[in-house]
Amino acid sequence: MKPTRSLLMVFLLPLLIILVPALILGVLALNMAREHSLDSHRTQSDYLNTLVEMTTFERRSGALHERLTQVLDEAENDQLSALNREEEYSLINQELNDIGEQIDYFTEAGLIDELSNGSAASLEHAFQEYRRLIGMAYEAVTLNQGDSAFFCAGSGS
């Protein structure tokens, strides 16, 4: 055996035996860290989208509540015809359906439950109760004009 060959066997071969697996493990670790970072980025992006939707939801529900109060006031003052009441109720009902879809999105996103356990279920329940109040208010407006003052006062609180 030549002296250079024994030098290769003594120093370089063990060095390669250590370096090659270390490089492979390093590359695998970097890939795993990158995947974890991308997954974390996606999650944060989803949460940010949910937060943006929540602010839109708050504005839309506030505008709907204001509109409902206005319609009840107009109905109480006999400013709405039967056709106008139907139109307004149809528009309000459509807006309620859209808000209901947003609430479904919130419950599926999971951010609300992650922030406070059970909040998504209570949000759904509160929305169903609000929707029921609007239905009762519409019935009061169409059936008995005098009851609309009660619902108008209830919707203002």
Textual characterization of the structure:
The protein has 157 residues and is mainly alpha-helical. Helices cover 89% and strands 0% of the residues. It has 5 helices and no strands. Helix 1 runs antiparallel to helix 2 (82-109), helix 1 runs parallel beside helix 4 (119-143) and helix 4 packs antiparallel against helix 5 (148-155). The longest helix has 74 residues, at 3-76. It starts with a helix and ends with a helix. The relative contact order is 0.09. The model has no long low-confidence stretch (mean pLDDT 81).
Largest sheet: none
Unreliable spans are none
Question: Radius of gyration, Cα only, in angstroms?
Answer: 32 Å
Q: Tell me the total number of β-strands.
A: 0
Structural class: mainly alpha
> What is the number of helices?
5
* Order of SSEs: HHHHH
Q: Give the termini separation.
A: 97 Å
Work out the helicity level.
over 70%
- Strand proportion, as a percent range, falls in under 5%
Mean pLDDT: 81
